[in-house]
Amino acid sequence: MAMNPMEQFAIKPLIAEPVLHIAGHPIYFTNQALLMIIVAVVSSLFLSLAVKPNRLVPNRTQSMAELSYEFVANMIHSATGEDGLKFFPFVFTLFIFVLCSNFFGMVPGSFTVTSQIAVTLALACLVIGLVIVTGFMKHGIGFLKLFVPHAPWYLLVLLIPIEVISFLTRPISLSVRLFANMLAGHTMLAVFAGFVVSLGAAGGIYMGVALAPLLLIVAIMLLELLVAFLQAYVFAILTCIYLNEALHLHDHH
Amino acid sequence: MTAPDPDRLTDLGKRLDEAQQRQAAGAKRPPPSQAGIAGRFATELVAALVVGGGLGWCIDWLCGHFGFHTRPVFLIVFFVLGAAAGIRNVMRAAAEINAEIAAKSASKPEEK
Prior knowledge:
Low-confidence stretches of chain B: none
Number of helices of chain A: 7
Distance between the termini of chain A: 58 Å
Strand content of chain A: under 5%
Oligomer: heterodimer
Mean pLDDT of chain B: 81
Shape of chain A: globular
Largest sheet of chain B: none
Order of helices and strands of chain B: HHH
Number of helices of chain B: 3
Largest interface: A-B, 24 and 26 residues
Structural class of chain A: mainly alpha
Helix content of chain B: over 70%
Shape of chain B: rod-shaped
Radius of gyration of chain A: 22 Å
Largest sheet of chain A: 2 strands, antiparallel
Mean pLDDT of chain A: 90
């Protein structure tokens, strides 16, 4: 039985015909699009229905929604201070979307949206775009001071390009970190699952040996659940840190 | 049933407050794991090299487009600048992690 651990990341059109054409390019409705819609619909329905009864003493579902609200609000407050809270809707949506995508990807047989660099890079570019727009709206042309460290002028010739490159690195490192973590975790799971299948197919004594990778999968699954949460958290906290730099230039120096 | 001892009650209240504070400090940030730190440094470094090299390559391509044959000059220069930016990124990330750990150990000194 040939098993390809990378097969789970393949993007397949679910409807044979293109849904629409943009500038001559056919746009298909793929498994990725379906999962993104499911994530968006389920998370917004869950959060809005959970707080609908508006109990004074929350039940479990309502506390889940309230705790995630408080968690993100605390995170923004500690990273950017009071005036960062106006970005709460953006950061909360981003956090919940990444978190739910990661968790939906953990369901066996489903598809991990965040294991596609196209998705994570688009999210990261959205974040950096917001940072740039916020910086220019708040500080005007003075936002460019972000690229000018405190140094004598002859060093600035060298340091300004370095700072600009360092800034341009952010969308890449932000997206690659999320994408690489999800890709590596799910590939590892598929590889160990492949071991179980091949050892089981070998029969005899190997059937007993197949138990070892099976138990390992359970452990990795738990680890992956932690990674799924941690990567969503890292994505959100880095968004806050970058927004903080745009809001308060050089305050951290 | 005996009446609750007021000393024990205030003591319990104090311990509850302490536990809550500890939890609030700890809940804000999951601890950065060793592998997480290593992964962060690696992506920062490599991403800066890629961005620097890519930028240099683009400038070379643009110059070639306008008839100046500068090819590998900007690529090399920006690759080196990218390496410097990568080290800058790693230093910044290290400073952030240090600040995080310092804030955490400051909030619960009893564990030191």
